[in-house]
From TrEMBL:
Pfam families: DUF463
Species of the source: Vreelandella zhuhanensis
Protein origin, superkingdom: Bacteria
Coiled-coil regions, chain positions: none
Protein name per UniProt: YcjX family protein
InterPro entries: P-loop_NTPase, YcjX-like
Length: 466
């Protein structure tokens, strides 16, 4: 009798817990071209085909045949664009297949997952469901968090500190324009707009050249703010500490005060609302990183990615005294970091890829563990575009990849070894790392081929569908 009562109360507790957990808000981020659009497309595709042809062996609910699939629901927040899943699938189904157009701002898609709970009893329903709200937003927006702890003066100093020569060279237009500015002169609107555009061009050039540590984030992905005066500012180079009081005392119409005022506007009306209205409400988060792309692009880009990730990860540092905790009290309780496009290297290199990702994020990972935020690293391919092959060369077996380049050429390549630790000068001197971009593979089923999407899905939502 007592044990029967124990069972009932356990089942009641289960039921209540499930009731509370009926909804999960999962966010996907990463810098541009990290693979967010591909990831979210594949995630939705895998979950929709979960009870059918999808290969999700590392997700217990799917492996045990309890996950019955997913349907799209209308989202709650009508102010956020819907993630264009159908368009993405149409591109992948085209002949020849194309990569989906990347999303450029925040987008959302709501799924209802149906599954049979593992433990059944008279209080547990036969099937139950979880509402999964998926969000995709640019990692560039997170680069703006550190900007909240600055005023215009200290931000200018931080932004104009020595950067590498390659990066500086991309800003010469802007540098020539700002060199002659007098902070005390009256602000000239047209001149500010022109110089802000030159600064934005420098950032865009740097982005194109593979640099990642770029602020303000909205200069790269302005969304609805395109052309607005909120984006017409830039840092002033050459400010020295002893000037601060004098500059702060300048009248409101001065160039310095105008730039400072726009900087404050950007903080209050662009950066804060994203954290307050969206970020604060995410339950789980995956951060995607194109580690292999940076290896391909050389040492200065690789170092820059490392710096950018260190800034970006500050948004997940929930130490009690962190800026974020003080300002917004976020509630992300589980985090995944993933090196994307793992199908660009042979499977024997995948463990190294994870080690390298962990090395890149060593400092933020240490902070997260200290703050007791569960975090796990993965290497994955959301949409696998190559096939692993063994080739025999002069009697020696070795691993290789077969795929089709974007130009349509079928190739068999060995892209190189991935270092397990941060690459040093010797790595860059001795070992080339080179791979082409591949075209998605044509398919005979509706399901997208992937590498370890199931492991990532298990970490992110598996505990909610037991
Ligand atoms: P986003 O800007 O973060 O949304 O990045 P996308 O998802 O648009 O990905 C950028 C590009 O990376 C794509 O156009 C593809 O060329 C490539 N890519 C993304 N995911 C994969 C993948 O799983 N495998 C391969 N081979 N390439 C990928």
């Amino acid at each position: 009798m007592a044990s029967e009562r124990g069972k009932i109360s356990r089942e009641l507790t289960d039921l209540l817990a499930r009731g509370r957990d009926r909804q999960l808000r999962l966010a996907v981020t990463g810098l541009s071209r990290a693979g967010k659009t591909a990831f979210l497309t594949s995630l939705v595709n895998q979950l929709r085909h979960a009870g059918l042809e999808a290969r999700l062996d590392m997700l217990p609910a799917a492996r045990e045949g309890r996950l019955l699939g997913a349907q799209r629901l209308n989202q709650q927040d009508l102010g956020v664009p819907r993630f264009p899943y159908d368009q993405a699938m149409a591109a992948l189904n085209a002949s020849p297949p194309r990569w989906p157009e990347p999303t450029r701002g925040i987008s959302e898609l709501r799924l209802q997952l149906r599954y049979r709970p593992a433990r059944s009893g008279w209080l547990t329903p036969q099937t139950t469901s979880l509402t999964l709200d998926l969000f995709d937003y640019p990692g560039e927006w997170l680069l703006d968090l550190p900007l909240l702890q600055h005023d215009f003066f200290s931000w200018s100093q931080a932004q104009t500190r020595a950067h590498g020569p390659q990066r500086q060279a991309l800003f010469t237009d802007w540098q020539e324009g700002v060199a002659a500015l007098d902070p005390a002169a009256e602000a000239d609107e047209a001149q500010l707009a022109e110089l802000a555009e030159r600064y934005a061009q420098g950032l865009r050039r740097a982005k194109k050249a593979g640099f990642s540590d770029l602020q303000p984030g909205r200069f790269l992905l302005p969304g609805e703010l395109e052309g607005a005066p909120a984006l017409q500012f830039f840092p002033l180079p050459g400010l020295i500490d002893t000037q601060r009081a004098e500059l702060d005392a300048l009248p409101a119409e001065s160039l310095y005060a105008t730039l400072a005022q726009r900087f404050r506007y950007y903080q209050q009306h662009v950066v804060r609302p994203f954290y307050r209205d969206h970020f604060r409400r995410f339950d789980r988060q995956i951060v995607l990183v194109d580690v292999l792309g940076a290896l391909n692009a050389g040492p200065e880009r690789f170092d820059d990615l490392s710096r950018a990730l260190n800034h970006l990860m500050q948004s997940f540092d929930y130490g009690k005294r962190s800026l974020l905790t003080r300002l917004f009290a976020p509630k992300i309780d589980r985090l995944a970091i993933a090196a994307t496009k793992a199908d660009h290297v042979t499977p024997d290199q995948h463990p190294n890829l994870i080690h390298l990702l962990e090395a890149l994020l060593a400092e933020p990972l240490q902070d997260l563990r200290f703050a007791d935020v569960p975090v796990k690293a993965f290497s994955l391919a959301a949409i696998r575009a190559t096939q692993a092959r063994e080739v025999t060369q002069q009697g020696q077996q070795s691993a290789a990849l077969r795929g089709t380049t974007l130009e349509g050429e079928e190739v068999l390549v060995y892209p190189g070894d991935v270092p397990a630790t941060l690459p040093d000068a010797a790595f860059w001197d001795q070992q080339g790392f080179n791979f082409p971009a591949f075209r998605p593979m044509p398919r005979t089923t509706d399901v997208l081929a992937h590498i370890r999407m199931d492991s990532a899905i298990d970490w992110l939502i598996g505990d909610k569908i037991t």
